[in-house]
Design a protein that fits this description.
Blueprint (H helix, E strand, L loop, with lengths): L4 H15 L4 H20 L8 H32 L1
Length: about 80
């Protein structure tokens, strides 16, 4: 008993409705990065600790990206309304 074709199609349609066609490539890229980071974390030796500065810098970069995204979307919507 596994996931059938119709269940996968239904999940994809729901994801399309939630995120919209424009955001899907970005969401898919973020998911792929997350999976890649998870796999690399699983391959690391148990007890190995990453450099705290590198992790802190990555967190700051992620926060700045998430803060810029709504501003970019708002500017895009504003330009579309002005042209159309």
């Amino acid at each position: 008993m596994g996931i059938g074709v119709w269940q996968v199609v239904l999940i994809l349609v729901i994801v399309l409705i939630i995120f919209g066609a424009g955001k899907l490539p970005r969401v898919a890229g973020d998911i792929a990065k997350g999976i890649k980071n998870f796999k690399s974390g699983m391959k690391e030796e148990p007890g190995a600790v990453e450099n705290d500065d590198a992790a802190e810098g990555e967190t700051k970069a992620l926060k700045s990206e998430s803060a810029e995204a709504p501003a970019e979307e708002a500017a895009k919507e504003k330009s579309e309304k002005a042209s159309g």
